Amino acid sequence: MERESSTSRPSTEPRASAEDGDVSVLTASVELHEHDERSRGVPLVLARIRLATDRGYVTADGEGYGATHALRLLANAVERQLLEGKIYRQSKKRPAPDEQQRLYGWWPGR
């Protein structure tokens, strides 16, 4: 006979959503970098993520001892940014000169 435990476990499902609905992730890029520093034999790991969503870009990082700890901190940072609405609407890349000429009809840099 199975018995349910009285302790509640945190849900692994994402809880973050935008103001008017859920956010769909189009692409995700995750980087892990292991530093030389160690604590009790466990290396310090930096985890970075860049998400391209239907609402814009989300970037975050987390640093902890061990990959699991770093990824957990990274997930918390992403969730915090989504809940606060810190989504970049566009890339910081500048448009190509041809695109600028098409938009403005002329461009002084030519």
Note down, in words, how this protein is organized.
The structure is a single chain. This protein is of the alpha+beta class and 110 residues long. The protein has a domain at 25-90: Double Stranded RNA Binding Domain. Helices cover 24% and strands 34% of the residues. It has helices at residues 67-84, 97-104, and strands spanning 25-39, 42-53, 56-65. A 3-stranded antiparallel β-sheet has the order 1-2-3, covered by helices on one side. β1 and β2 form a beta hairpin.
Quick take:
Residues 1-24, 90-110 are annotated as: Disordered. The protein has 110 residues and is an alpha+beta fold.
Note the topology.
Layout: E1 25-39, E2 42-53, E3 56-65, H1 67-84, H2 97-104
Antiparallel strand pairs: 1-2, 2-3
Region (Disordered): 1-24, 90-110
Summary keywords:
3 strands; elongated; 3-stranded antiparallel beta sheet; Double Stranded RNA Binding Domain; alpha+beta
Cα Rg: 20 Å
- Number of beta strands: 3
Structural class: alpha+beta
- The rounded distance between the terminal residues' Cα atoms is 79 Å
CATH architecture classification name of the domain at 25-90: 2-Layer Sandwich
